[in-house]
Amino acid sequence: MTPGELRSHWDSKYEQGLPSLESPDPFFISSFNQFVADRFPCGGTALDLAGGLGRHALWLAARNWQVTVIDISAVALQKLAAKARELDLTLNLYALDASGHQFEPDSFDLIVMFYHFDREVCDRVSSALKPGGLLICKSSLVWDSYEGSATPNLRPLEKGEVLTQLPELQVMIHTERPVRDRGVVEFVGLKQGRI
Length: 195
Known about the structure:
By secondary structure, the chain is an alpha/beta fold. It has helices at 3-16, 26-36, 55-61, 74-86, 122-128, 161-165, and strands at residues 45-49, 66-71, 91-95, 108-114, 129-141, 169-179, 182-191.
């Protein structure tokens, strides 16, 4: 799919509604509590990459985090902006394809990537973490075989691939398991260095 087709696809999905993407993922909550909460007790700066309706961004903003959300869908971000206003929360929202974003090095204490793993931006995502920052990631995984039509940079990860795509991060959690007709990988990585 071209970026325009991808944008139209996600705009359409978000117009129809995706209630399953409105609550924070349990893996995100448990990883945050295990690795992030004590490290950043007063909040910090966070990037929710392909954040959609902002299920993680809103949760973080309610806990004093300064959150930037990047998503290709303007529809999702309009809905997110309305929800943030309703909750009296402030978010920085950017409607664009992550591959077109210029990530500033050492900008974020936390980066969240759920079900959008773009191999073309991995190096930039890692460099955007501040030393001592964390990446919480969950993504689709090819478990047996893959017959989809996603572009090579967006197709589901192969087993173990998350480790080769993010080699500069210290692995805090890495699990891979089958889920229905595919697999899922859960990953938490730490950027070495002083906070």
